Amino acid sequence: GDSQESNATGNNTSAPLPKGVVLDKDGKPCRTCTSMSSWRALTKQAKSDPSTSTNTTTTSTAALAAPATPSPSEIPSDCPPDVEALGRSTWTLLHSMAATYPERADTKQQEDMGGFLKLFAKLYPCWVCADDFQTWMAHPSGRNKPKLGGRSEFGWWMCEAHNEVNRKLGKKEFDCRFWEERWRSGWKD
Ligand code: FAD
Predict the structure, then answer these.
(1) How far apart are CA 119 and CA 101, in angstroms?
(2) Residues 89 and 173 in one domain
């Protein structure tokens, strides 16, 4: 079932939200926008003082019942994804789409991929991520427009898109010369 039930109307009277908790546009905590560690802090807060809780009740019972708190990056495999698990899976999909893109794409193939990316950037289930990604793609100079002529330029573009998010999050940038080894051919021994 849905593990993100809500029972309150807002966060007006409650303790401040733990760091990193992102609210949805309807004011409820957004699980797919929030890391597991922040989510746990939120559910802990809600449990310790339910009267002033934010409008979340629980994560899954499996997560709460765990005797020892797993490290923040470990989410039980049958629980909904946090922002990081969702991101990792999505990058796998996106880079794999680039890795299997035609070496030279015809007009229809380019249109299809362009349409996919546009909708993807609109529908990605972490809204803050989606908003930023759309803004980046739509840079007025046109410099971040998807490059869809063929696999090589599309793979490079995807790598740059990913690096943009890496920079925003303070992560290390990936050297895009190696995108194909990482996502298509595998590393040479
Ligand atoms: P990931 O960044 O998920 O990368 C997975 C693997 O890809 C890495 O282990 C590495 O081998 C490889 N890799 C890394 N960089 C590149 C690259 N440039 N090119 C090719 N391969 C690479 N999270 C937020 O908290 N806030 C956001 O606003 C946000 N926006 C996102 C927007 C999009 C479109 C997507 C798909 C994800 C977003 N995320 C966001 C999630 C974030 O990018 C990471 O997926 C998440 O933090 C987990 O990071 P990670 O360190 O496990 O590796």
Answers:
(1) 18
(2) yes
The interface pTM score, or ipTM, of the predicted complex is 0.99
**Which residues does a 6 A CB cutoff place in the pocket of ligand 1?**
83-84, 87-88, 90-91, 95, 124, 128-129, 132-133, 159, 162-163, 165-166, 169, 171, 174, 179, 182
Which domain does 53 fall in, by range? 1-80
Of all protein residues, the one whose alpha carbon is nearest to atom 45 of ligand 1 is: 87
Residue 117 has pLDDT above 90, yes or no: yes
Looking at 41, 58, 80, the residue that finishes a domain is 80
Q: How far apart are CA 128 and CA 108, in angstroms?
A: 31
* 99 alpha carbon – ligand 1 mean position (Å): 17
53-62, 121-130, 164-173 — which is least confidently predicted?
Answer: 53-62
Range scoring the smallest mean pLDDT among 57-61, 74-78, 142-146: 57-61
Q: Whose CA is nearest to atom 11 of ligand 1?
A: 182
pLDDT given for residue 54 in this prediction: 47
The pTM of the full predicted model, rounded to 2 decimals, is: 0.83
Give residues with Cβ within 8 angstroms of 182, minimum separation 6. 95, 174
pLDDT at 58: 37
* Whether the predicted pLDDT of 66 surpasses 50: no
Indicate whether 129 and 166 sit together in one domain. yes
Which amino acid is located at 185 in the chain? S
Give backbone dihedrals phi and psi of 45, rounded to 5 degrees, phi first. -60, -45
